[in-house]
Write a structure and sequence with these properties.
Blueprint: H1 2-19, E1 23-27, H2 33-39, E2 48-53, H3 57-62, H4 68-74, H5 79-93, E3 97-103, E4 117-124, E5 127-134, H6 139-166
Parallel strand pairs: 1-2, 1-3
Antiparallel strand pairs: 3-4, 4-5
Length: about 170
């Protein structure tokens, strides 16, 4: 799984560099693992602006600007929260692309969401997308899987972006 994520990270960063775009992360359940995987790629500094870890619910509101009423009504494990996290990351880090992760790595359910529930989101110039998945395994497996899912979604969004804006798959 880690090699797969590193390959995805490398591809994503190379393609964003070719476009002259930047990237940042806002993470909850992955606790910085997504940004770390991106930074593992040599030359990442040309694209990666930084990463924000907002593990506690109030930090999502205070740091990232996730609406408190959304957090109160839906909880932190929610697709709209994941999208709001990307908005905060894009604003704070001044990046073109932002990735976010939120979910439940375990050992216990959170806000009635079972262990393994994951939302990953991507924001890019002119668009945003969120994906829900339920990942099997222990805490480490869920966190690693969430990183891989976020990178896969980012690459899909980049494909769409390039087809629409650039006219090629870069």
């Amino acid at each position: 799984m880690a090699e797969d994520a590193l390959a995805r990270a490398s591809t994503l960063l190379a393609r964003l560099a070719a476009l002259g775009h930047t990237l940042g992360t806002a993470e909850s359940l992955t606790g910085g693992l997504l940004c770390a995987r991106l930074i593992d790629v040599p030359g990442a500094s040309t694209v990666v602006r930084g990463g924000l870890v907002s593990y506690a619910t109030e930090v999502k509101a205070d740091l990232l600007g996730v609406p408190s009423d959304l957090l109160a009504s839906r909880g932190a494990v929610d697709p709209q929260v994941a999208l709001a996290m990307t908005q905060g990351a894009a604003r704070i880090l001044r990046c073109d692309w932002a990735l976010a992760t939120t979910g439940v790595a375990g050992p216990d359910p959170v806000d009635s969401a079972p262990v393994g529930t994951v939302y990953v989101a991507v924001r890019w110039p002119g668009g945003q997308r969120v994906r829900h998945t339920v990942l099997p395994g222990d805490r480490a497996a869920v966190r690693a899987g969430a990183v891989s899912e976020a990178l896969a979604l980012a690459l899909e969004c980049l494909d769409d972006y390039c087809e629409r804006r650039v006219g090629s798959a870069l």
